[in-house]
Amino acid sequence: MTEASSRRLRLPRGEGAGAWLCAGSVALSLLALLALLALLTVRGLGHFWPSPVELVVLEDGRQLAGERVREVPLAEGDGVERLYRTGNRDLDGDRWAWVRVSAIEAVSHPADIVVLERRRWGQAIGRLAAFEAAGGERLEGEAAWPALEARLDELDALRDARDRLREEVILPLAGQRVEDSAERTLDAAHARLRELQAAMAGGRLSLATADGETLSVPLEQVLGARRPNAMSPLDRLAVWGDGVWRFLSEGPRAANTAGGVWPAIFGTVLMVMLMSILVTPFGVLAAIYLNEVAHQGRLTRLVRIAVRNLAGVPSIVYGVFGLGVFVYGIGGRLDSWFFEAALPSPTFGTGGLLWASLTLALLTLPVVIVATEEGLARIPDQQREGALALGATRLEMLSRVVLPMAAPAMLTGVILAVARAAGEVAPLMLVGVAKLAPQVPVDGDFPFLHLERKFMHLGYHIFDAAFHGGDVQAAMPLVYATALLLVLVILVLNLTAIFLRHHLSTRHGALTRR
């Protein structure tokens, strides 16, 4: 052991306890973070794993089939209640059932239990009684299952072809003045769309529920069917992967309690990128002026105090400011100047992507200013004096010496701004976020990026699904999954900025390392 290291180990009396206290605080913080990530991962990703379906026989002879969700002890030690997801909401108005464990007589896992994912009414659970094809052919019993699987694969292919036709041909040409050749293309696309719709129509299946009722479901409403009790582990893994992919690539449905979050992912990343592009130059220029240009007197100190106080203003205040100044003020004026023909329907005089990005840029501006100014203050004056002594102008000294050395601090401010802006919800509710906006604000029509459109946001999707949905039990797994996705999106954005900061720190020497 060297002499320097031995000196570091010999702490004065009292400092050892402080070091242990600091280490314990770091450990507790890491444990809390890991516990949060573990909870989001288990509850969020576990939602897509196909759970086995139990057929429950009660003491009074009633039967129900459903996926076991959780157990809750009753008050005063009066037994345990178990929650089942039973589906079939269009039959009895509810998709959940609480059962007292002591009232259960038998539990089994029949291999022929079918779980249907439907466009409306959510899941349907029961035994496949019959399958009727579009041509009138009717199959019953076990022979109906292979025919149903084949028909559902055909419907998936038809839906994909229909969606591609709408997105690639019909939507880009609709509402535009097109030439004769393009008009013929549009007519042919509409004819092909009608053919696809006709091919998807027809067909029906009958499901025998556990309580003896028969549920008739049109095939065009069925998104998927599976027999979870008959699945192997590899089959379950394939279904889980397909569920995760659909969650990431599809839009929401059933009032945000089902479907995916792709529009919200796209809207969140695009808004954060626009916010970063807007806030970085203004924050950096303001910090340069305060630290390098302005006279260091009482007025400059008051401005610094004001900037630091702005960082603590509640975010909803910025939302109200953005609504009044950006949306109604600037947006209303733009409508009166350039979009008068569209009034009274507003174009920019309503919430949209541009106003949301500007509002969050204003919200995070103090963070960027403070971080950049701290970085500028840590650069030794000898660097500035040496550049000036070698004949550089003040502008060359700032642009070629000071700013490159302060770049890691600027990126630190951007990292903090991204972390705060990506999770904000309150101001977005006033300036542009929407409950449902399945079309992303980027397409093939000029100007390609439509800043006036409303957009979806992961944070608002969590808020809406958790508090405004009609079925909180059904929404909670998606809330956990969306929260995990929001954390991962913020992590990826921050890691990108951290990588750039590390690259610049290495390039410009140890003086700039944080």
TrEMBL record:
TM helices/strands, residue ranges: 261-290, 310-331, 351-371, 401-422, 478-500
Coiled-coil residue windows: 148-199
Residue ranges annotated for the ABC transmembrane type-1 domain, each copy included: 265-497
Compartments reported by the entry: Cell inner membrane; Cell membrane
Organism annotation: Halomonas pelophila
SUPFAM superfamilies attached to this UniProt entry: MetI-like
UniProt keyword terms in alphabetical order: Cell membrane, Coiled coil, Membrane, Transmembrane, Transmembrane helix, Transport
Protein family: Belongs to the binding-protein-dependent transport system permease family. CysTW subfamily.
InterPro entries the UniProt entry points to: MetI-like (IPR000515), MetI-like_sf (IPR035906), Phosphate_PstA (IPR005672)
Membrane protein topology class: Multi-pass membrane protein
Pfam families: BPD_transp_1 (PF00528)
Name the UniProt record assigns to this protein: Phosphate transport system permease protein PstA
